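quick one
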Amino acid sequence: MNSRPRRTRRRRFVIAGVAVAAGAVLIGSAVVGLFIAVYGLDTNVSKRVSGHGTQVVRIALTDFDVTPGTLVVDRGTHLVLNVVNEGDEVHDLALEDGRLRTRMLEPGESQRLDLGLVAGRLLCTVPLHKSLGMTLDVRAATAAEQRHPVATNR
Ligand SMILES: [Cu+2]
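structure w/ copper (II) ion:
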């Protein structure tokens, strides 16, 4: 029977694996911490959009974030975004596939973007802004979410 050394070796692998995982978590937190220190907290506020007909939702563009960052929309709700540039730089908001977009908005400017029933990811098309957190995800509510409009993660 030579199961003992094999088991010991396996345990060593497990310990090494845990150490590597812990190291990765530490490095990951350090990187995230650095980004937060440099760019501020990238808040991903989720907002629920309920109700029939057309709903206008105010979307704030800042340097460099989109708030709210996620919209969970009832099926059948016609969504219009009121996109306001609250930052100190020029920003826009465009569907990832480029079908719909605002013009480049100067600080303080705003524009309505009629999404209708379209879901998907929107982003700021200024170079690097997307990777700094300027994205907005619009998705349809699940059947369960639609039954319980209040129970959302805020
Ligand atoms: Cu931008």
